[in-house]
Input
Amino acid sequence: EAGAIALLLRACLALLASPVYLLSFLGLWEPFCRKVFFPFVLDKICLIHDKKSKKHKQELFRNLPDFRGPSGALRLLEIGTGGGSNFQFYPAGCKVTCTDINPNFQESLAKNMRKNQHLQYEGFLVAAGEDLGQVPSGSVDAVVCTLVLCSVNSVSATLKEVMRVLRPGGAFYFLEHVAAEHSSWRYFWQQVCHPTWKLVFAGCCLTRELWKDLEEAKFSELKIQHISVAMPCMPIEPHIVGYGVK
Output
């Protein structure tokens, strides 16, 4: 019965979003979404999310300096940098390489780079998480990924690339929204919203159980914490946060 109600509500939501489905069918939604809609909306969502997750991020990135390389520098690669909202949490002198599959975040990125001049910006690569071929193997001390694994095409391929670019003893930091407990109302609403949400928000999946992918990724040490980040009227409250050591 719950399944039938979910399908009915899913159809109602699709009806409400029918202009987006039509634009998608005509091939017009995706370019508009990537260039205009997603960067604009993500900027607004990130402002709320950053406030709600600030404590968790401060705690998460506190031990970043422990992973400095033998030279004393900390070389950090961020996957899915977006507008650069994580820069404020990185230690002074950190050498940052930014990557994103979508190059349309220039405005907020430039603003955050100006705000965070305690960092050294090494470059910006337009690349998907699954294909970081421009980054040499074993060349970075830390990889950071926040709110990105929900929308990559392949989580396991992305984590393979993370393992490749990290030096032995380097660390992968993550903070991601995940599927809710299956028996909960939250999960029911995630199921209802999933197809429309994925279309509107550039491939973002609501029901990924990312902790399982991380557990399969063969980190020598893995710390995962399940937390709740209260996002008003959004089905993305359950999160995981932590880091894995290669």
Observations:
- The chain has seven helices and seven strands.
- Residues 29-60 form the longest helix (32 residues).
- The two ends are 45 Å apart (CA to CA).
